[in-house]
Amino acid sequence: MVRMPAAVLLAFAITSWATNPIEPLEFSSETERERYHSLIDEIRCTVCQNQSLASSDVPLAADLRSAVYAQIREGRADSEIRNFMRERYGDFVLYTPPFAAHTYLLWAGPPLLLVIGGIACIFMIRRRRSMLQQRN
Amino acid sequence: MIRLALPLVVFALLVGLLLTGLFTADQRQIVQTPLIDKPVPDFSLPMLHEPEIQVTRDELLGQPFILNVWGSWCPTCRDEHPWITRLGQESPAQLIGLNWKDEREDALRWLDFYGDSWDLQLVDYVGNTAIDLGVYGSPETFLIDHKGIIRHKQIGAINDEIYADLVARIDQLMLEAAADQALAEVES
After folding, report:
1. Chain B nearest C-alpha distance from A29 (Å)
2. pLDDT by residue (tens digit) across B85-104?
3. Is A60 exposed, middle or buried (0-12, 13-18, 19+ CB in 10 A)?
4. pTM above 0.95?
């Protein structure tokens, strides 16, 4: 008697698995499929913040993936889908934030550091050179 | 002297940077919503207790209301429930629940067990309205003014301090609504 529910459950599990396999999404073209995958790679899962929609397993990420899918099928452009996410979750939802007043430092910072470092290098090399010349 | 001090200064700055990072980690987890001062997105959702009745956004406008996103699957919602109960009893604004991605049976049982002080419970089973609201975790609590503008969003559980802040904000919204109403009466 005790084993009955388990057996029934197992039977249910097997039938539901058999009738509901994970269906691959259908796209009308290969570019659509690529757009879908690159978008869900680029959109952050706001629940588990260091994962993208593609790599996250939480229910919200699944909802947002299906939102991206539905919009691609409706013929919306990538920029429209990105804006859809930004309007709701802010810039943070995109792994590539926009180039705007509050992100100037973010985008310009690394090249700026490179330039500063380069200039410092040039000065140091020049100084060493002149020191060497003086010694000679 | 400078040669000796410079690495120390850089080191101290780095330590400072990392320490601030460490102590503000919790705050940085919060995703600031871009929806503040924007209108509540349009929706038409069934009621939890009477699923055959749909409620639309426009039906709720006219008076400020509180929109509290919860689910019976959400342990933090249980933690904040005492404050939600207080809000339902004490707040002059309507307290509306948005039962998010929940099974109806579970939600009803949860409310039976913990108590239901919401004035109205709406259901977002699929989660589209929650996406429109930029919901990413529950509980989340929105304060919406009489014109339907989202004025404040509380992410995470309510505690004593947050409760006091919410009540002050709600009072402000009630005043604004009353002022607008008085103005409309004078004009007519």
Report:
1. 26
2. 999 999 999 999 999 999 99
3. buried
4. no
